[in-house]
């Protein structure tokens, strides 16, 4: 009951009126709520996803890791110890590297943990000091199925059509532990009506070999995005285009240098578009601006000047507001 009230209050605060939805955003640039509204609430919690939905992004992201009993858990890493109190609840369950792994726990065991704002497990220090206070609140881990039902339920009750943007994490690690996270995830997506490019689901992965397998061996017809992290990967666009529909680069891979106070850009967006690939860079953070003087400058530089097709942000309300003014 408390969670239902929480969701209702969020909708009032952020205006669930569909007339202000992202359908009015300039062109086809999409807003992806990165780990939910993670700039305001602990990442990948149901509360962060409900808050994100009320902010009217186009998609809400789900990072996925399998539990011991093959439940896709919505969490950013294969580790538990930087967003939960696993070290308190299960002090004897860490591996030789002193890390706690999602895959070593059943889903029921994972439900015993408290989720908190991301922190350094060695120092205990909160990663983003001005975000939701570490150790406060009553947040839990949840499954992909539970999150889909939340988003689809909110779509139904508000008249919106906000999509999902799942990412399978470290598939090679899962294979080495006898688990096929890609197939398990695709089967669940299919059960909930996500099967083709026309469905409101974008499937992403950093592992190029696995994402190609998703298309060619597992025969998925979903919209696929190849995440990229390293510079050498930007030279593989022709190959990516044989199975993917878009790329998700680190936004710094788009920037070249400043000339007379203005940013110049690499040719990554231009080359991607020539291959028919959409470009959704990560991550736009209002509290981690680095080379930018303001969040508006960051968004204008990347969304408008660099001509990307959308992006991931911890602050979906700010990105939606910016694009609605263009």
From TrEMBL:
It comes from the Bacteria. This is glycerophosphodiester phosphodiesterase. Pfam families: GDPD. It comes from Tenacibaculum polynesiense. It is an enzyme of class 3 (hydrolase). Its EC number is 3.1.4.46. It catalyses: a sn-glycero-3-phosphodiester + H2O = an alcohol + sn-glycerol 3-phosphate + H(+). SUPFAM superfamilies: PLC-like phosphodiesterases. Residues 29-323 form the GP-PDE domain. InterPro entries: GP_PDE_dom, PLC-like_Pdiesterase_TIM-brl. CDD domains: GDPD_EcGlpQ_like.
